[in-house]
Amino acid sequence: LLNTSASLLLVALLVSHMLLTKEGVTSLPICPKGSVSCQLSLEELFDRAVKLSHYIHFLSSEIFNEFDERYAQGRGFIAKAVNSCHTASLTTPEDKEQAQQIHHEDLLNLILGVLRSWNDPLIHLASEVQRIKEAPETILWKAVEIEEQNKRLLEGMEKIVGRVHSGVVENDIYTPWDGLPSLQLADEDSRLFAFYNLLHCLRRDSHKIDNYLKVLKCRLIHDNNC
Amino acid sequence: MDLRHLLFTLALICANDSLSASDDILQRPQISKCRSPEMETFSCFWTAGNFYNLTVPRILQLLYKKSNEEDWKECPDYITSGQNSCYFNASYTSVWTPYCVQLASKKEVYDKKCFSVDEIVLPDPPVHLNWTLLNTSQTGIHGDIQVRWDPPPTADVRKGWITLEYELQYKEVNETKWNELKPRLSTMAPLYSLKTARDYEIRIRSRQRTSEKFGEFSEILYVSFSQIGIGCDHCTEEVEFPWFLVVVFGVCGLAVTVISIMLSKQPRLKMLIFPPVPVPKIKGIDPDLLKKGKLDEVNSILACHDSYKAQLYCDDLWVEFIELDIEDPEEKNRASDTDRLLSEDDLKSHSCLGTKDDDSGRASCCEPDIPETDFSASDTCDATSDSDQFKKATEKEEDLLCLERQDNDESLPDLASTDPQHQHRNTESENSSVWAPFEDSVESPHLSVHTQISNQNSLTSTDFYAQVSDITPAGRVVLSPGQKSKLGRAQREGCTEQNFTMDNTYFCEADVKKCIAVTSQEENEPRVQEQGYNEDGYFTTESLTTTVANLGAPTAAAPSSEMPVADYTSIHIVQSPQGLVLNATALPVPDKEFNVSCGYVSTDQLNKIMP
């Protein structure tokens, strides 16, 4: 009896070991809940952040394209394309040179600032888009999903910043958003243009964040040799 | 002179034609596209069109403006990207800034485009394509290869500034259609099961990962197995599955099997595989009769069957009834018709009425005189099953009559007294003039009609019933089409929230009275709204709750074309021997003493309760 129970235990241990250390699994190792000392490596944190930022940008592209197709045709929104986003006041790198030169801590702070500035607009986007007449289900779902994923990305970035920063974490990079009244205008044309604008800005900013994170990942983790 | 005129007009026409033809070809200059290969620089290209005054070069200018600037600036580099192009190098490029470019001469703006650089990324094609052999199949006919390539040199993938994905396409050399692989991020791809005897072509293109548009294709890579000595020349004839032989042998085998089964002497096997096809057969009729053409005998035999008769007459009956309704109003004055319907002959008629209810309407179509012919034809009738069925029907009928008598002993007087009032209201609110004659003649017959109808319903124990609206001299029953319910008012909150213990058998007086108390105080609405409106004009106990809840609108107050008349009730379920569940009508009844235990409520009693 002892022999069989011992062998069973051994088998169980072996199997669990195999499962836990399986190579080639796409999912990242998970820290068991409640464990204090378990820490994901910086590489894993960046991997997750890049995945999330890519997903958010993908969703933003899709929702913009769908909105454009459905509501913006024939309204000449593109002609008014010289729009300004509420995050324009944040000085972010505009080309590769600037992105190379900026210090990684500053870039991380900027990313955090942009993400925080989008927290509020995304919440209102998710709720106001429901009021658009006959909004397709896909648009509604995507708006909610983007808002959720943005929160998760913000949490992840704060973790990364906590790891990477040597000093005090600055929290003051932030732009408030005052576009809520424009999303609730009575005139349908103006209201739809406000949505178009917001989604256009969202697509642009999500692309920025995705790019910056990839640059940071290649720089910090892979030493500029992705 | 005429000839000259003719020539002149011809010349004019020709000149016109030529001029107009050239007008069609004339095209405006326009910006064809703007493209950035690596998100660091970008170029714009345009077509000059064929305006005659633009043959002088450099008249056309490309002006650009960033979103936060006021002035239009001229293109910094007209040369690097070729003719009719403008190249913006890294110092002029800001990636996420909106740009506007316009194509103009000194006088006129021909075209304008606005974009931002991240939207126009179209990468260059990959370079350095090569392939290696992974393995070959045992027969040497097929082989797997691995294709590798490098990202475009202009794209800075190393520093992560741009992320590319690649799409590989391949085909045999003499094919026309390309096979595509799914876009992938890695710079290598395996191709499986290529034929070593054939040569292949491979090409790859790339795009920025979040874009939709691909860049240009790379140069074509040629794959030839014979070059590395693998090619199998004598393997060109591929062994194909011998479909033809399979089909031939399969058919032969199947034929042999079928024939052997058919010829076999084993009846059981034969029955199993070839079951006998049922031939059409009518009970009690010898097929020989049909063959010999003795239709009279066949008809008489068939007359024993109710269903046959009903089929013969049923559909026509409806039509006749409707017509008679309109055309012969005086026929309905005869009460004898209703008496006839309600007389002792009813027992016989119940075989008809007692047929199982389905939605075919046959039950209502049955003529009272059908059973009589049944009896007369019984001599020739062979079918004993019919008479058995008939007997059963009558037995059931007797039971219910007894039961009904017990209840009606109490309720009959009430019913009688309320009926005239019913009728009175009916005639007031009913639009059809056909009903008017009923006013005088009708008390007891209607009572019995109600009863009979209820009996019928109890017999069938289903929801189906209809109101007898008329009886023709021929003794046919005219049934009225469904009436709208008089479930008057909009839902009253207090009433609908009542938790009637509606287990579909009864509801308590207490509950009903509660509901009444709530609704009685509310004002009468002249407009009748339909709640729980049932198309067929009858109520089920399921709708009873709403019925009860919605009662209260006095019928006399506002007769309108929408005000339905429900002057009948049907028994919904027989809970023998204690109770009958009746469907409530929507007619209110003047207050009377209500004295029944909480076992069941009958219609008239319910009516009494309702204000």
TrEMBL record, chain A:
GO terms for biological process: positive regulation of cell population proliferation; positive regulation of receptor signaling pathway via JAK-STAT; regulation of hormone levels; response to nutrient levels. Residues 1-27 form the signal peptide. Gene3D superfamilies: 1.20.1250.10. CDD domains: prolactin_like. Its main location: secreted. GO terms for molecular function: hormone activity. Coiled coil: none annotated. The keyword Disulfide bond applies. Transmembrane segments: none annotated. PROSITE patterns: SOMATOTROPIN_1, SOMATOTROPIN_2. One of its GO terms (cellular component) is extracellular space. Keywords: Disulfide bond, Hormone, Secreted, Signal. It is found in: Secreted. Pfam families: Hormone_1. Belongs to the somatotropin/prolactin family. This is Prolactin.
Automatic annotation (TrEMBL), chain B:
Keywords: Cell membrane, Disulfide bond, Endocytosis, Glycoprotein, Membrane, Phosphoprotein, Receptor, Secreted, Signal, Transmembrane, Transmembrane helix. PANTHER family: CYTOKINE RECEPTOR, INTERLEUKIN 5 RECEPTOR SUBUNIT ALPHA. The keyword Nucleus does not apply. Residues 410-434 are annotated as: Disordered. It is a single-pass type I membrane protein. One of its GO terms (biological process) is endocytosis. The lineage of its organism: Eukaryota, Metazoa, Chordata, Craniata, Vertebrata. It is found in: Cell membrane; Secreted. Residues 1-22 form the signal peptide. It comes from the Eukaryota. This is Growth hormone receptor. Belongs to the type I cytokine receptor family. Type 1 subfamily. The chain crosses the membrane at residues 241-263. One of its GO terms (cellular component) is external side of plasma membrane. One of its GO terms (molecular function) is cytokine receptor activity. The keyword Plastid does not apply. InterPro entries: FN3_dom, FN3_sf, GHBP, Growth/epo_recpt_lig-bind, Ig-like_fold, Long_hematopoietin_rcpt_CS. It comes from Zosterops lateralis melanops.
